[in-house]
């Protein structure tokens, strides 16, 4: 439980770091990439710890716990999406579409996490009990 709490705290800090770099007046693509890679590492660590934590949760509490973890991660990722958009805009000036541009400027790990986040959001959005009321 302590590891998960600490990991959530680090994800929150990394998410705030993304927000701060977006507000920087002279932000460069290097600064954006560094911030997103830091966030991705923290989020990947949290996901691994969360998976280990879920082994000990009673089946009856599982849906509530998974939903809470999903909401936390989804909310933490909001600035991540803005950073990816900003990076894509910076690099799109040379041509190309946003998706392939974003994939080409992110590290392989970041691109995989981004694709997974999009898929999870789509899947959970299709499940009535996971939709926001």
Task: Provide structural commentary.
The protein is mainly α. The chain has one domain. It is built from 5 helices and no strands. α2 packs antiparallel against α3 and α3 packs across α4. The longest helix has 34 residues.
- Cα-based radius of gyration, to the nearest Å: 16 Å
In one word, what is the shape?
elongated
Number of strands: 0
Biggest sheet overview: none
Order of helices and strands: HHHHH
**Spans of at least 5 consecutive residues with low confidence:** 126-133
- Which percent range fits the helix content? over 70%
Tally of individual helices = 5
By helix and strand content, what is the structural category? mainly alpha
Number of domains: 1
Estimated share of beta-strand residues: under 5%
Mean pLDDT: 77
Rounded to the nearest angstrom, the distance between the terminal CA atoms is 29 Å
């Amino acid at each position: 439980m302590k590891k998960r709490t600490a990991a959530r705290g680090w994800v929150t800090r990394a998410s705030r770091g993304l927000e701060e770099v977006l507000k920087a007046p002279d932000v460069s693509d290097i600064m954006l990439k560094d911030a997103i890679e830091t966030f991705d590492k923290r989020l990947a660590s949290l996901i691994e710890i969360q998976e280990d934590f879920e082994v000990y949760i009673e089946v009856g509490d599982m849906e509530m716990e998974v939903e809470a973890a999903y909401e936390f991660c989804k909310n933490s990722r909001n600035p991540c999406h803005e950073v990816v958009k900003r990076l894509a805009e910076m690099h799109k000036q040379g041509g190309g579409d946003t998706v392939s541009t974003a994939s080409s400027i992110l590290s392989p790990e970041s691109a995989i996490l981004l694709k997974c986040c999009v898929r999870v959001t789509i899947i959970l959005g299709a499940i009535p009990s996971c939709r926001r009321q």
